[in-house]
Every structure is written in C-alpha cells, then in structure tokens.
Specification:
This protein is α/β, with parallel strands linked by helices. Helices cover about 40% and strands about 20% of the residues. It has helices at about 15-25, 35-45, 60-75, 95-120, 145-165, 185-190, 195-205, 215-225; strands spanning about 5-10, 30-35, 50-55, 75-80, 125-135, 170-180, 235-240.
Amino acid sequence: MSEYCTVVTGAASGMGLAITRKLLAAKNSVFAVDINAVALHDAYDGEERVISCCCDLSEDACVSKVSEKIKSHFDGVEGFVHCAGYVKTAPLGYILPSDAKTLFGIHVSFPMQFLGWLAKKSNHAPSTSCVLISSLACHEGDKGNVAYAAAKGGVEGLLKCAAAELVTKGIRLNVIVPGIVDTPLAHYAWMDKYSEEQIAAKRAEYPLGFGTPEDIANATMFFLGGQSRWITGQTLVCDGGHSVV
C-alpha cells in the first residue's frame, strides 16, 4: 500500500499549524515545512505522522531540498498547501530589491517550481489537490503594501495556467483569498504596532469579525477533500463579509 503525504508550508504557526492539526485529526500524513526549526520541533515533536523540514523557501535550492526529503519518506504527494507567510511593507521608492526578491521567491517562485516537480507522474497520487493562500491585499489599495500585494497577485496570476496543465494529470489547484486573519504573522506585521482604536476601526470593516486560522483551515480541508473533486482553477474569498460592506 502506497503512503502519500500532504505538504504544508508555513506549518509551524498560524494557518499552517491549524491546517496541519486538522489533517492529522483526519489521519493524514503531513510533510511540514517551515523556516523556524525550533517552532517545528515544538509543534510536532513525537508526532509519528509528521515529517518536518526546516527550509528557507526564498532560496534557489529549496525545491530540490524539499522534494528530495519527501521522496525519502513517502511514495508521493496527495496534497499541497502553500501558506508560508512573509510580509515586508515599504512605500514606493523604498522597496529594497532584496525584499522584493524574497517576497516573490516565497509566494510565487517556490509554489510554481514545486508544482512543476509535483506534475511528474512519479511524484503525486492518482488524485491530488493543491491549495495556494493568497491575500485580499492584492485586491485593495493599501499604502506601503505594494510589494506584498504584487507577490500575492502573482499567486493568483499563475492559478489558471497552472490549473490547466495540472488537471490533465489528476491534480487540482485552487486559491484561497483571506481577509484579515488573526495570526502571529499579522501581529508581527501590523497589529502590535496599531493602537486599540486603529484595530477597532479595522475590525469594524469585518461584519463577521477578523478570521481565525481555523476558518482558513476549514476552507482548505474542503478543497483537499473529495467533496471538491469537481472544482479546480478557482479562487475562494474568505473575508468575514468585508467585501460586501
């Protein structure tokens, strides 16, 4: 009997951690990728169905490192969730080339290259589902957020063409577009820098409140499971009603 895994990037915290926990609760094997080795160890030490991989997804050799380790432990991949997060804010004229390269490397280049590896017949299960996490940032104007928004726009830009290639191989690809989700990365990027009044004003723009990692995990599990077997190449906005007010 073949043993396949679901690959989750950004698996040590936030949305990636919530998704991995739901996968484990459903008795799936997980290949957990994160840049933080300590957080990976703390999250999954002793968990028999998790293989951890500490990797910087902005590095050129990251796809080779991840894919080689997957093949050394599993027969192939049955699911892929790319939610590794990286945010760097700066106004136009102050965006460093190195920051832009890292943003596009993590959010666009890695999933594009990994999907290319996955498309090879020996690397995936007969039926495989992939989910990329975008952001509402690339649909709204937000001063100082142009580089991050552009990178997330790249995620959505690759969706249709990649899905068209992958569907002939039995691989589905969809994108989730979250609004504000209360994660450690969100706190680091902006929430801890805002006043209570500023956060309250932001929260008022979300009729259903800010999202939780579990909200995104629930949507992800739908795309990974058989209930969505007839869906590919689509985007799902999860924003607590923000886009309708």
